[in-house]
């Protein structure tokens, strides 16, 4: 059984500003960023289940990846 990390859900990045409050969640960790570009770069470097949130105004799930068989 090979599990593959695949896109699961999220609204995308179009409505988010570059500056704000962004959280990347993975494992049991949360890493916070002030710039969307830095948050996305970190998010893209993680090879495990993960989610990136825009917390600037109201919590918005931007992207989430999960393992599927």
How would you summarize what this structure contains?
14% of the residues lie in helices and 51% in strands.
Mean pLDDT: 95
Content-based structural category: mainly beta
Strand neighbour order, sheet with most strands = 1-5-4-2-3
Strand content: over 45%
- Low confidence ranges: none
Distance between the termini: 7 Å
Number of helices: 1
Q: Rg to the nearest angstrom? A: 12 Å
Number of strands: 5
- Helix share of residues? 10-25%
Give the helices and strands as they follow along the chain. Answer: EEEHEE
Biggest sheet architecture:
5 strands, antiparallel
Give the number of domains: 1
Shape, principal axes of CA atoms: globular
Describe this structure in words.
- The protein has one helix at 36-45; strands at residues 4-9, 19-26, 29-35, 50-54, 60-68.
- The chain has 69 residues and is mostly beta strands.
- The protein has a 5-stranded antiparallel beta sheet, covered by helices on one side.
- Strand 4 and strand 5 (60-68) form a beta hairpin.
- The protein is globular, with a radius of gyration of 12 Å.
- It starts with a strand and ends with a strand.
